[in-house]
């Protein structure tokens, strides 16, 4: 596919995202003009861009969306603009979704699916129903909608002038005389009327057969006033009139105006108009870049490929651009060059294969390890001059490797906005389906995390949000009964925490009732009644993460939640993270996901058992301490220990690894407290060493079948350790 | 009566409304070479306008009203 096409796909995706966000904002605040405009622009640009390619259903659908929005924006049907309703938003969302699917298909297959025309038809009808009068829906938008504007005679053109005009297309109801309408008189109230064409809408019959009380004229007019000034004149006949903004190029014949394709000309003129829109410097800069891209694309599509620099140079303001289009590109490259140097070049993202990134990360990891071996060498070198030089060299290498590692890690970091983006839409749709009012608050979307972590995070986050909406936040009636504001608040907050990223999902809903959780656990046969009764409230609430605890049926009668929570926990823990839940019955629930910053480097606690070194991922370690032998209680072979006021089962790593028990009898036992999803476990080890960042290498070859190990890693001093997968081991 | 019919000349005066449509249609049809004088017309109803457009009478004098003079597609064709 051509570069132009690829560009369309990328831009269409961006525009659809923008449109989705604007639509959400608009639904929240129907009076939000900025969002209406943004939404309209997105549809408008999509229409223009898609028209360059052979994808009529796409163009047709966004065209219909644009029509609907122009009603919303300009209030063609009545005195005040129509307001966004949830039903209308639904229809527009469906249109956006369809477009997104098509863009995906375009990217994949280069063409729209076979059923596109049919799908477009249905959605267009949906958009045309309801708010939009049938007559208006069939119309086109903007310049397209008023083809006669492009076909004015020279005299008319001269009378009309150029620039932004408002076009009026008024076909009165033939019976309108009976209702007292006088179509011609309406035009007296149009401010700055530049042109009025009165034409028969059907061939005029011979006078003898003419019904004098039947209106057979239609009116086409151009006004220099804005749409908002023109619209009131026609407030009594909104269903018979179409009003839209059009822009006429200067009367002088420019290459663009002379182009056979009036759509392209209109698009170019629209780009010029965009350049003259007010805005901050940053906005204008980004607009200029976008306009330059669009103009280059349009010119290329018209078979007039033009040097990019020249186009960019021309896109400083509308006047320069019109001159550029009129005079042709070759005219003044000399003045154009220095300008293009100062014009901001749009940032282009660099796409790198993930495998190459991984290779780089692995190399950086190896480099850290090799660098670590330098330390002992330097110490062995003694105190001579050579040793001093070696030491300073080693220090420099240290900091460089640190920087390199940091830079390599940053390459993979992306803002969490990526996983936050689908949430507003999800919340909106789900809340609407459940008839709940929910305010979504997103915080910390700029927090960065490794791409792998984001991939891990996406699905659990959707689960949590869905659960909070489903089971957490109550219906407006119930909220009113408990003196809460009718709209629930769902807060998703991300922030960076020591070496990791934390995402919290909290709601101000009903919370989880620990008593109900205990009952449910017993009823499901997961726990004996007395064991359940012994659970602390915190642990009882944690039961939501227990596998098999929750099915939709079992939680429906609980105030809590549960669907898929064990899946959330499993996904997060697989990535070396942790899930915590805190809930206060009646006032809400907070679920916290803590994830490492990256999957490429794992922080482990090095432990020793039977003379070998093992690593335990730090994410799982709740604490390390020495426990007096006497405090380990054993019932048959099952041992337990009281840690932090909790009875924790104790396992010995030697036994887990099928090694002989420690012969030496010790006064104290070294214990690593591992926080596994379904409760803490104390792991007794021979000794606990340093914490180290290692590059985890998965088991390969014959070792792959070995269970209980996450992989191997090399320590800074070159020693090999096996990193344990405690969940599998236990 | 806003339209005064004088043999083959119809004078439009002041505001000419839809009430005049039927008489005007009959007059236009009955008159061999109808002539119209729009100079004193201040308002011309659409129904009258489309009759004039269909019958194409000789326009002795165009409207003096600025709006009508500018917009109605009836160039004076008179002497």
UniProtKB/TrEMBL annotation, chain A:
<dbReference type="InterPro" id="IPR037006">
    <property type="entry name" value="CheA-like_homodim_sf"/>
</dbReference>
<dbReference type="InterPro" id="IPR005467">
    <property type="entry name" value="His_kinase_dom"/>
</dbReference>
<keyword id="KW-0597">Phosphoprotein</keyword>
<dbReference type="InterPro" id="IPR004358">
    <property type="entry name" value="Sig_transdc_His_kin-like_C"/>
</dbReference>
<dbReference type="GO" id="GO:0005737">
    <property type="term" value="C:cytoplasm"/>
</dbReference>
<dbReference type="GO" id="GO:0000155">
    <property type="term" value="F:phosphorelay sensor kinase activity"/>
</dbReference>
<feature type="modified residue" description="Phosphohistidine">
    <location>
        <position position="44"/>
    </location>
</feature>
<dbReference type="InterPro" id="IPR004105">
    <property type="entry name" value="CheA-like_dim"/>
</dbReference>
<dbReference type="InterPro" id="IPR051315">
    <property type="entry name" value="Bact_Chemotaxis_CheA"/>
</dbReference>
<feature type="domain" description="CheW-like">
    <location>
        <begin position="601"/>
        <end position="730"/>
    </location>
</feature>
<protein>
    <recommendedName>
        <fullName>Chemotaxis protein CheA</fullName>
        <ecNumber>2.7.13.3</ecNumber>
    </recommendedName>
</protein>
<dbReference type="InterPro" id="IPR036097">
    <property type="entry name" value="HisK_dim/P_sf"/>
</dbReference>
<dbReference type="Pfam" id="PF02518">
    <property type="entry name" value="HATPase_c"/>
</dbReference>
<dbReference type="Pfam" id="PF01627">
    <property type="entry name" value="Hpt"/>
</dbReference>
<dbReference type="InterPro" id="IPR036641">
    <property type="entry name" value="HPT_dom_sf"/>
</dbReference>
<dbReference type="InterPro" id="IPR036061">
    <property type="entry name" value="CheW-like_dom_sf"/>
</dbReference>
<dbReference type="Pfam" id="PF02895">
    <property type="entry name" value="H-kinase_dim"/>
</dbReference>
<dbReference type="InterPro" id="IPR008207">
    <property type="entry name" value="Sig_transdc_His_kin_Hpt_dom"/>
</dbReference>
<keyword id="KW-0614">Plasmid</keyword>
<dbReference type="InterPro" id="IPR003594">
    <property type="entry name" value="HATPase_dom"/>
</dbReference>
<feature type="domain" description="Histidine kinase">
    <location>
        <begin position="396"/>
        <end position="599"/>
    </location>
</feature>
<feature type="domain" description="HPt">
    <location>
        <begin position="1"/>
        <end position="106"/>
    </location>
</feature>
TrEMBL record, chain B:
<protein>
    <submittedName>
        <fullName>Uncharacterized protein</fullName>
    </submittedName>
</protein>
<keyword id="KW-0614">Plasmid</keyword>
